[in-house]
Design brief:
three-stranded antiparallel β-sheet, alpha+beta, Ferric Hydroxamate Uptake Protein, Chain A, domain 1, single chain, about 140 residues, 2 domains, five-stranded mixed β-sheet, 3 helices, rod-shaped
Length: about 140
């Protein structure tokens, strides 16, 4: 009787292991898909030369770096150029930087100390773009 119980328990455990393996194999794409968890929500603000907010939108992105996310936002009509330090913004919403002005950006209201090409996107952060006058 005891031997029969051990055999039954062994068979049940073996079936559970086999069914578990089959489940993992059939669902491996959804179980190990990390792209589902990489989406970040960010806020993009744009200010004109008078420091008036002209754009404010909460967006979702799967990008890691800010420059790539901005390039995919067609409604910003953003123009960038490459430099030896990475990309820099020359125009947003058809507003060009112009003589003596440049596009700066802020992360959660703090002046960004890194270029947009190297800026890793942080979930729930606010990225504000302002056209500012060069201070010589």
């Amino acid at each position: 009787m005891k031997k029969k119980s051990v055999i039954i328990i062994s068979i049940v455990l073996l079936l559970v292991i086999i069914l578990g393996a089959v489940f993992v194999i059939l669902n491996k794409d959804s179980l190990f898909d990390t792209s589902l968890s990489t989406s970040k929500q960010i806020i993009i603000n744009v200010y004109d030369k008078e420091n008036k907010e002209i754009y404010n939108e909460k967006v979702s992105t799967d990008e890691t770096y800010l420059a790539k996310a901005l390039e995919k936002m067609d409604n910003l009509n953003i123009q960038m150029q490459d430099s030896e330090y990475g990309k820099y913004i020359t125009s947003i919403l058809d507003i060009n930087e112009g003589d003596g002005y440049y596009w700066s950006y802020y992360i959660n209201n703090e002046y960004a100390s890194i270029g947009i090409s190297n800026c890793e996107i942080v979930d729930d952060a606010t990225y504000s773009f302002k056209i500012e006058k060069f201070e010589y």
